[in-house]
Amino acid sequence: xxxxxxxxxxxxxxxxxxxxxxxxPSKLNALNIETIKELHKAFKRAEKHKETKAxxxxxxxxxxxxxGADISxxxxxxxxxxxxxxxxxQALLFDFVAYLSTPVIAAINGFALGGGLELAMAxxxxxxxxxxxxxxxxxxxxxxxGYGGTQRLPQLIGKxxxxxxxxxxxxxxxxxxxxMGLVNYVTTQEELLPLAHKLADKIKRNSSVAIAAxxxxxxxxxxVSENGFDAEITAFGKCFGTAxxxxxxxxxxxxxxxxxxxx
Length: 263
Fold this sequence. Notes:
With 263 residues, the protein is of the alpha/beta class. It has helices at residues 33-48, 79-98, 115-122, 149-157, 159-168, 174-180, 189-204, 208-220, 228-239, 243-253, and strands at residues 2-3, 9-14, 17-22, 54-59, 64-66, 104-108, 111-113, 125-129, 133-135, 171-173, 185-187.
């Protein structure tokens, strides 16, 4: 089922998986403010759609996932405008994606630079095609990553490597990203979306309630205001009060596949 109301993105739902495609090929899928708003709306709807068990985000064409932000929109911004751009963008899209209870897989099909890599890093995990190139080149423009890049990149690949990538404004290829742990898998361009769907299908078999709890607990471990172990204990306990737990344990004892109700 395709949703046709968007200008800059494509949304397609099929068998429990919502695929969101950034569709600005003439701009290498660069993120402008309107695209960020559309992405927020699409992710919010997918999160509320009870039948959606996983979300895949990718870019149109074979050149770019997202080649960065649309620099023309903020080239003449003041200090306060720049701060507001980062604050609103993080709240509307990047943090919003990171804290979704529905798993998000970023399928990186080419360049993922600046805001594009920041969007991919906000996803719960990433896979890449073998032609992918990734980096945070913002310092070459006299600015720093503002959509969470200075925080999420060190979490994923370590402080030293993140410092080097950000300070040198370098790009890495898909194999380097795999070695660093920035992506989970590298495959051909043709096999990228099929692999994303294969992973989504594995996710769909499991309890969506338990997965949401796991996402919450994992995120808590990277939040300085929370104790991740305490969050895990609380989330673990809550699972015992769910219908999914009853079904999962009964299915195990009865030696059958579970049919999770999702509550």
